[in-house]
Predict the 3D structure of the following.
Amino acid sequence: MVECVRLLYVSKFTQNDDVFKTELMNILMTSVDHNALHEITGVLSYGNGYFVQCLEGEKTKVSNLYFDRILKDSRHKGCQILYFEEQIERIFSEWAMKFAPINPSIRAFFQLQYAQEFNPTLLTARTIGPFIKLLAQQNAWEYYI
Ligand code: FAD
């Protein structure tokens, strides 16, 4: 039986804000192609210089993507896995890679939980589940911001 996993990590954008939109477009286009081919689904969010990404799919494929590609990408740094769960049902099954920019409901989540601005490094075992569900509810801007 193929084992399906969900991985969530955070990182910091290393480039200048001026190139963010271009780099985001490049990342999303690569992601949609690669992830669709490998049946990986998920969501990418960005705000205050932080990326947070949730990847779902076969364990080997998700691990290969994270360790062989994403971790080596110099457009971000400080990658930190906050969550890894096995035997999951996909939440983002319709999305090769959904982009969910931070918006008032995501900001409100961080204010309520931490009395702080959006900062996904603050997420803990208690808050990651509700945060992923919140991302699943967001309207996606798949390519454009
Ligand atoms: P190649 O194009 O052969 O490049 C070789 C190496 O350089 C890779 O390690 C790559 O990480 C790095 N690299 C590639 N382009 C750049 C660049 N413009 N600037 C700096 N380094 C670069 N890819 C996916 O397929 N699916 C995803 O879900 C996904 N999510 C991402 C999330 C974030 C936050 C970031 C920053 C990147 C993400 N990527 C994703 C892109 C991924 O890191 C690789 O760049 C991409 O998959 C191409 O990998 P490759 O081995 O073919 O790289």
